[in-house]
Design a protein that fits this description.
GO biological process, one term: gamma-aminobutyric acid catabolic process
GO molecular function, one term: transaminase activity
Keywords: Aminotransferase, Pyridoxal phosphate, Transferase
Strand content: 5-15%
CATH topology of the largest domain: Aspartate Aminotransferase, domain 1
Helix content: 25-40%
Structural class: mainly alpha
CATH class of the largest domain: Alpha Beta
Shape: flat
Strand order of the largest sheet: 1-2
Radius of gyration: 18 Å
Number of helices: 5
Family: Belongs to the class-III pyridoxal-phosphate-dependent aminotransferase family.
Distance between the termini: 36 Å
Order of helices and strands: HHEEHHH
Largest sheet: 2 strands, antiparallel
Number of strands: 2
Cofactor: pyridoxal 5'-phosphate
Amino acid sequence: MSYSEKNFPSEPTAPKVSTSIPGPIGAQKVKTLGEVFDNRCTYFVADYSKSTGNYIVDVDGNQLLDVYCQVASIPLGYNNPKLIEVAKSDKMIRNLVNRTATGSNTRLERFVWC
């Protein structure tokens, strides 16, 4: 059994696009975003709660194969069950809530916070 089959049994088998991108809901959200933020590079608004494995879902329900994993994201898939499990730990909570301004946790900081 592959990693993907084991951890993402409900991952789509192919992209599914049922609206334009952005669709009507996404277009409205992009427009609203443009009132407070420079949205010229915004193509769609993601619904991370519905995204799974290598597929990102937009607010209109379009399932897109995310081959770049948003470039800077952790490339282990959306809603990865192992990462969710770790994120619920006290150690992770302390490191996120008490993180330094630079976001780097040195060994000394890990000793103090963990």
